Amino acid sequence: MIKKILNDVFDYKKGDKIVILHDIITKKTSNYFYRIDLADKWYSEIKKFEENVFLIKYKETGSHNSDFPTHCYQGSKETTFEEVFNETKIVIALTEFSATAPLVKFSNKYEFKAASMPGFNREMLPAMNIDINEIKKRVGKIYDLLFDAESLNIVFDNTELFVDLKDCFPKKDDGHFIKTKVINLPTGEAFIVPKEGIESKTKGFLPILGNLYKISSNQIVSCNKENDELMEKIKLDPMVGNIAEIGLGVLGSFGIKPVGEVLLDEKVGLHIALGRSEHLGGHVSPKEFLDSKNVWHQDYVFLKGIKEIIVNKGNKKTVLMKENQYTIF
To answer: For residues 284 and 196, is the Cβ–Cβ distance under 8 A?
Structure first.
């Protein structure tokens, strides 16, 4: 599988420096050990045809899309990410906590291509076997629909969210490195960062894990539940509640089912993220947070409870999704 991934996704050429990353986590699970074994297996398989490959580990960040720690390790040798990524062409991150944001930062400097695979487990293997070109076609249809769109109406069973997309542009994660340097594997979504800041007209209500959050100017401002943990974090640091992404995955249309891990589940249908957005083309970066410990980009997946999603472009309204299913393919 790894040789096919390198050829089909990364356009690997002999001599390319390849780095496989994994984090060392405190609360170890069976999936953690699966990823460690997979990292070792892929490293060994690559070593058979490419000597320029490195297996690098680092201490967990503790939250998704937080910056990398200062140091990392090659075996027992302590090193830095600057040294590791220098002249690197391909990075595969088999991590517990998403490394997408820090990988974007480093890829801008060192010009490598990277696949971020947080929470990857063996249940995701079927999604890795879908024809990349077919995924590209379906992601492209959503991307084209979002391009130049002015807004979205996301209608849930009991509430609605209006999303301001004025002057915003979508991106693709379809297994092809064209306008991006970091993708997810499994792949398969189009996404867009809504208009951010006090001028944003994004408003309404967002249901997350049984609670209902009020949205104003693209940020969570209140919750229907007292002493809510997420709301307490937002009160301490408002950027925690910034709506950072509207993502639309296509893998559900291929029959792929959720497995309880965001990496795959977000590619099945709708997901909405909170927190930092600069790595996706938005404006909210770690410096906008009051404390670096609060920096995150957290995805919430919505595979049920969606009445419809309407894309507004001029006078044209297009129903993108109805009763949890896409209407355009």
So the answer is: yes
Rounded Cα–Cα distance for residues 141 and 328 (Å): 8
d(C-alpha 194, C-alpha 315), whole Å: 20
| Domain final position from 120, 143, 160 | 120
56 is written with which tokens?
């690098």
Residue recorded with tokens 């092809």: 176
Of 121, 122, 135, 252, nearest to 183 by C-alpha is 135
The rounded distance, in Å, linking the Cα atoms of 217 and 242 is: 9
Tell me: do 301 and 240 sit in the same domain: yes
Q: What is the pLDDT of residues 229-266, one digit of tens each?
A: 999 999 999 999 999 999 999 999 999 999 999 999 99
Strand-pair category, 113-116 with 90-93: parallel
- pTM for the whole structure: 0.85
125 found inside a domain: no
Contact (CB, 8 A) for 70 and 80 = yes
Q: Can you tell me the distance from the alpha carbon of 154 to that of 204, in angstroms, rounded to the nearest whole number?
A: 10
Same domain for 56 and 145? no
Residues recorded for the chain: 329
Cα separation, 293 vs 297, in Å, equals 12
Phi, psi of 295 (to 5 degrees): -65, 130
Domain tally, the chain = 2
* Domain around 32: 2-120
From the number of C-beta atoms within 10 Å of its C-beta (0-12, 13-18, 19+), residue 63 rates as middle
Model pLDDT, residue 315: 93
What separation in angstroms does the CA of 264 have from each of 34, 124, 173, 193, 214?
A: 16, 7, 12, 20, 27
Tens digits of per-residue pLDDT, 235-245?
999 999 999 99
- Res. 8 pLDDT band, cuts 50 70 90: confident
Two tokens, residue 104: 């974007």
Q: 320 and 147 in contact (C-beta within 8 Å)?
A: no
Q: Are 309 and 171 in a shared domain?
A: yes
